[in-house]
Specification:
By secondary structure, this protein is α/β, with parallel strands linked by helices. The chain contains six helices and six strands; from the N terminus they run E-H-E-H-E-H-H-E-H-H-E-E. InterPro entries: His_Pase_superF_clade-1, His_PPase_superfam.
Length: about 170
């Protein structure tokens, strides 16, 4: 079964908050998140599941992306994704129900950047891979295709189809 996986870093957050976990998005982050959502919708991407870190800035990123894309999907919030390293984040994706065909994951760096790099099987467009390799800034979105069960997703098993940085 062909699946689609979107790996995204949260949008630009305020530098301060009551705690790091509770930092909200900056105004630029809300605008950039909506721009990323509009781009995803323009690419014909409509997820049937979203796995989002429970941190405030990632929740607000999801809200901005969903608004910009016109999606009404409620995300699955995961507190473990907040502090997850790449392997733990991959483990969380592996737990996604196999009925899900199109998944969006929104988390934090460096985890999302490393996850996107390790998933890439190297068979996609070299220019797209090169643009992703340079940086994975806030509102960065990597879109992968993957054939197989989520439980079998591993390093070098997904094809990088697109890379975009949402900017308003």
């Amino acid at each position: 079964m062909s699946r689609q996986l979107v790996v995204m870093r949260h949008a630009k957050a305020e530098q301060a908050g009551p705690t790091d976990f509770d930092r909200p998005l900056a105004e630029r982050g809300r605008l950039d998140g909506a721009a990323a959502g509009a781009w995803l919708a323009g690419e014909g991407i409509t997820p049937d599941h979203a796995l989002v870190s429970a941190a405030l800035r990632t929740q607000e990123t999801w809200a901005a992306v969903a608004s910009g894309a016109g999606w009404s999907l409620s995300p699955e919030l995961d507190r473990g994704l907040y502090a997850a390293g790449p392997e733990t984040a991959l483990d969380l994706v592996r737990l996604v129900d196999d009925r899900v065909e199109r998944l969006v994951v929104i988390g934090h760096n460096p985890t999302m950047a490393v996850l996107a790099q390790v998933l890439d099987d190297g068979t996609g467009d070299a220019d797209v891979a090169a643009s992703m390799a340079g940086d994975f800034p806030t509102s960065a979105v990597a879109v992968f295709s993957y054939d197989g069960a989520w439980a079998d997703l591993g390093e070098g098993t997904a094809r990088l189809e697109a890379f975009h940085v949402g900017r308003a």
